[in-house]
Design a protein that fits this description.
The chain is α/β, with parallel strands linked by helices. It has three domains: about 80 residues, Multidrug-efflux Transporter Regulator, Chain: A, Domain 2 (Orthogonal Bundle); about 80 residues, Methionine synthase domain (Methyltransferase, Methionine Synthase (B12-binding Domains), Chain A, domain 1); about 130 residues, Cobalamin-binding domain (Rossmann fold), CATH 3.40.50.280. Helix content is about 60%, strand content about 10%. The protein has 13 helices and eight strands. The strands form two sheets. It has a five-stranded parallel beta sheet, sandwiched between helices. Helix 6 packs antiparallel against helix 7, helix 7 runs antiparallel to helix 8 and helix 9 runs parallel beside helix 10. The radius of gyration is 22 Å and the shape is globular.
Amino acid sequence: MALIHIGAVESATGVSRDVLRVWERRYGFPLPERDSLGDRRYTQQQVETLRLIKRLMDYGHRAGAVVGRPRRQLLQMLKASTLPSSHGTSAVASLFALVQQGDIARLRASLEEKCAELGLRAFLSDVLSPLNGEVGRAWASGALPIFKEHSYVEAAQALLRDVIENLPPSCRRPLVLLTTLPTEQHGLGLLMIQALYRLALVETVPLGTQTPADDIVRAADFHSADVVALSFSSAFPRNVLQREVSSLRKSLPANVELWLGGGGVHRLRKKIPGTRIGSTIDGALELLESWAYEHQTRASSKAGSGRNAV
């Protein structure tokens, strides 16, 4: 069986090599083998168990409570820690089966069919969101290899790009800048929100993923953005989330709102002043509605003050 170098394990699991060494000393897991140069090498089973541990820690479990436990127990803990899909429909189950089979052509066709049948808004909330959850849980538990997860993401992103391309031109504010922070490489959530906001005829400027904070600030100024919207996957490092979002909020002008979404926002230790959270499709729409209401109220108040002055 091929063994995996510690650097590749770090990339595949999101657990740094320094942490791996600490766990090895403190908990006796993972115990690596050594190559002829003395470098640590790990088995595929150890890597899959590390993914489980990482996901459980993302859900708030301490290292001491999960590292070194049998895989069976970790799977039970993961099942108890993750919320079941709120839409356990046969459609989602059928689509997930295609992901498992790796039948990407049928998956893409089925996604297109569901989007046309339900309409974009319902497709995003009732099909794609719960399907993302199923795929994420399967990958974390080792039931779905990463190449199949990547193929699914590519198919979903290609569909959303086509949908966005065929939507009417945007004509309403707020102008929303869409991106992720440098340590977040997952972009499917951004495309979902871009499609949702474009459907509402709201202007969006997608910057892609992993944009440095200084560039986000410069882009917000260049485009005269009203909002910067960030997406976080459930794999986003907890220790980085609070710090980097707080820092970005301080760097942005006070008149530029900072919206946070995606499966990772629940991992914030506490709400960051000057930010708003919309972690679901409904939540993302509520942010738009709140912005429109508040700005309409301000405009009416200013108009009233002007008339009184006259």
